[in-house]
Amino acid sequence: MPVGIAVVGCGYWGPNLVRNFWESDETELHWVCDLVPERLLGIQKRYPAVKLTHRLEEVLADSAVDGVCIATPSHTHFELARQVLESGRHVLVEKPLCDSSDKVQRLIDLAEQRGKVLMVDHTFLYNPAVQAVRGILDSGRLGRLLYFDSTRVNLGLFQRDVNVLWDLAVHDLAMMDYLIHDRRPLAISATGIAHVPGQPENMAYLTCFYADNLVAHIHANWLAPVKLRRTLLGGEKQMIVYDDLEPSERVKVYDKGITVTDEKEIHKLLISYRSGDCWCPKVPAGEALENEVRHFAECIRSGAKPLSDGLAGLRVVKMIEAGTLSIQQRGAPVELNLA
Predict the structure, then answer these.
(1) What is the structure's pLDDT at 276?
(2) Average pLDDT over residues 120-147
(3) How many domains does the chain have?
(4) 324/161 Cα distance (integer angstroms)
(5) Structural domain ending residue among the three candidates 87, 121, 155
């Protein structure tokens, strides 16, 4: 039997969630809630069978609703998710889960007390290409991981309430947390700048420091002439390039690297370069949001822990908070303690 769903918020990202919940065989979309009448009118034209309201209370009064998806500005996430969980419903919240780690922890505790699913919309974790990269990393083909380097830039959309870390870098931090799941960063350093007076930082460079000389670097920018979504992962044996904008072959594995020889008799290191083949793993078809919607429904039915659960959302928010604090301190490293 399909899981009954309501979507709260249909501004920029909400309509994508509405479409996927509507089209999925695993869910039945009952309600869409938004404060802006024009947005509801657009939903009504496309999905005339869906009930519309501007009041969350009306949604939560319907016993047919099993889960609620929240796609509203981040500063509203905590209060809306709290109401949903206290009503006895499961909840999926658009990234970032909340605008502070304290609020995230309160939602985690509440979901655990009520025995409900708390899931965050870290969309890229459900991207078949990212899951393929995770499989390659877990296989050990790359050898010891040396670095994670990601670029996510475009022209706009400028946000008024959050800086570029909360808006763009959150995706890369979520991917990093998922791909490098056996280790956590020990400290974060970040620099950023606001080029529009009175607005938050529109570009930032964030570096995560791990043990064993592993480093992760993220460049996020709202003020770039081109759109780039590219991640490099370098290992001792092989390297990966993941380009989300590639129409095909989004994941490429390169048998390239260096070999270091310790010539003790001449007291120096000799570095030789290795240039081998490149291969592209087959990536299954499927939209990330389609996979995410299915996963949310499965977790509601089974009570299983979501791939992007509250703890994953908490780690990402803590990293963004540390990065924002580091920006305020002109790049001074901020220590982390992530579970």
Answers:
(1) 80
(2) 97
(3) 2
(4) 13
(5) 121
What are 66-125's pLDDT values in tens digits?
999 999 999 999 999 999 999 999 999 999 999 999 999 999 999 999 999 999 999 999
CB-based contacts of 67: which residues, under 8 Å, 6+ apart? 3, 4, 5, 6, 89, 90, 91, 92, 117, 296, 297, 300
Cβ pair 207, 170 in contact under 8 A: no
If asked whether residues 207 and 165 sit together in one domain, one would say yes
Which range marks the domain in which residue 140 is found? 125-287+318-335
Are residues 282 and 133 located together in one domain of the fold?
A: yes
Contact 299, 305 (CB under 8 A): yes
Q: Do 93 and 207 sit in the same domain of this protein?
A: no
Asked whether the predicted pLDDT for residue 152 surpasses 80, the reply is yes
Q: Report how far apart the first and last C-alpha atoms of the chain are (Å, whole number).
A: 36
Which of helix, strand or coil describes residue 48?
coil
Task: Concatenate the DSSP letters of all residues of 170-195 into one string.
Answer: HHHHHHHHHHTTT---SEEEEEEE-S
